[in-house]
Each structure stands twice: as C-alpha cells, then as structure tokens.
Amino acid sequence: MEKFEYNIEHKPDYSFLTVQIPAGKTLKVEASAMATMDTNIQMKTKFKGGLGRFITGESIFINEFTAQNGAGEMTIAPAAPGDMDHLYLNNETVYLQNSAFVASDPGIKIETKWQGLTKGFFSGENLFLIKVSGTGDLWFNSYGGIMAIDVKDGYVVDTGHIVAFTEGLEYKVSRIGGYKSLFLSGEGFVCRFSGQGRVWIQTRKIQPLLAFLNPFRPRKSSS
Fold first, then answer.
1. What does the pLDDT read at residue 177?
2. pLDDT higher for 7 or 205?
3. Whole-angstrom Cα distance, residue 181 to residue 37?
4. Least confident of 78-82, 185-189, 213-217
5. How far is CA 179 from the centre of its chain?
6. 136-155: per-residue pLDDT in tens?
C-alpha cells in the first residue's frame, strides 16, 4: 500500500501536520482539524465512531479529503496544544484515548470500544477508547509531549497521561492508594498494564490545568 508523504512541524508544543495526497487518493481527518488545502481537494463528511463518541461529547464526524485532477497538499492542526506522532500499521491494532485521533489512510478502520464501568477512566474518565486497525498511515496527538514506552512485563501509568497503546496489552484500572489518597494526595486512578507491547504517554494532563485555571475564572458579583 502506498504511504503518504508528510511532515510534522513545531513539535512538541504546537504540532502542525502537512500531508501530500496523491491524485485520486483520500485522507481521513478528524472534524474541524483542517487548516489549509489546495483548491483541487474535495471534502466529504461521514458519520464515524457510532453512538460512543456521541455520548462522550467528542466529534462523531470524520471528514474525507480527496485530491481530484492531480495531487494536492493539506495541512492539519489538532485542537489541543501538544505533540503529534505517526504510525504505519501493517494489519495491526492500536487503541487511542478518545480525543487523540488526527488523521489516517482510508484503509484504516476506526471504531469506539466500550471500556466498561471499571476501566472507563482514560482522558478525563471517558468510557470509550478509539480502536484503530488495518493497514496504512495513522497520526495521533496529545496534550503535551508524547513519549513511547516499551512494556515487557508490567507498567503503571496515570490514566490521564495515556495517549495510546498496542493491542495485546492487558490493563486494569485501580486506585494508586486508598480512598484517602484518592481525594487528598492529588493522585487518582492508574492503569496497570501487563504483557508485552507499547504505551504512548503525554507529558501533561488536562484536569490539573483546569484546576490551576479555575481561581482565575471571572465570577459574578454577589452584590
């Protein structure tokens, strides 16, 4: 399968993706992420992800960009300030946190995966992961920088720092301490991976940022 030519600039803070789309070929892109494109590129919007993404408040649409009458170039800017990474899947499967998908080859299948009430604590405690499988290019992003970690036996990651992981890794979500630690330590739930595979983590997570900004929010006067 032909691979896309691409370039990622401004890593790891404000990653910006440029993709060359061959004539007649299509690129799938997360809704609202397109920044610029050549005039011969045509867009269609399709429903993807099913009910899961609707429930979690994420976009349920993926735009398909096709280069007509010749090759074209488009640039893509994810919503979150942070890093971006690329994988070429060869009949493989990875799982992404709910907001990490950026773009992919049309041969890549995108599905939501119910984590269950016990496991549903990724990315702000969403109950769904994105299952990405097939053969072709995949781009995904994070809030903060991305680090890849090879797991050979076991590894523990704060759930808010997980960006992606490979199929074959087993995981359980649990508290890092007792209930007192959960509410007073500033630490919450962790994901305990087992088996062999790779985990991608982000160097920042959203919830502490929201807590930091909260005292600076404008507030209505009581008078």
1. 56
2. 7
3. 49
4. 185-189
5. 30
6. 999 999 999 999 999 998 99
Write down all domains in the chain, each with its CATH number in brackets: 5-214 (3.60.160.10)
Could you tell me which of 21, 212, 185, 17 has the C-alpha nearest to residue 106? 21
pLDDT of residue 184 exceeding 80 = no
Taking the whole predicted model, whether its pTM rises above 0.90 is answered as no
- Determine if the peptide bond prior to 12 is cis (ω within 30°): yes
E strand intervals along the chain: 5-9, 16-21, 26-30, 34-37, 41-47, 61-67, 72-76, 84-96, 101-104, 108-114, 128-141, 146-151, 154-158, 162-166, 170-175, 189-194, 197-202
Q: Cβ neighbours of residue 41 under 8 Å, at least 6 residues apart? A: 21, 65, 66, 67, 68, 72, 74
- CA atoms of 22 and 2, how far apart (whole Å): 9
**Is 145:12 a contact under the CB 8 Å cutoff?**
yes
Residue 85 has pLDDT above 60, yes or no: yes
CA torsion angle for 192, 108, 148, 81 (degrees, to 10)? -100
The CA distance from 120 to 97, in Å, is 11
Burial group, residue 146, by CB count within 10 angstroms (0-12, 13-18, 19+): buried
Give the CA distances from residue 38 to residues 29, 74, 88, 106, 183, in Å, rounded to whole numbers and listed in that order: 15, 6, 25, 19, 51
Phi, psi (rounded to 5 degrees) for 21: -100, 115
Find tokens 């799982």 and name the residue: 95
Task: Judge whether 101 and 110 are in contact, CB under 8 Å.
Answer: yes
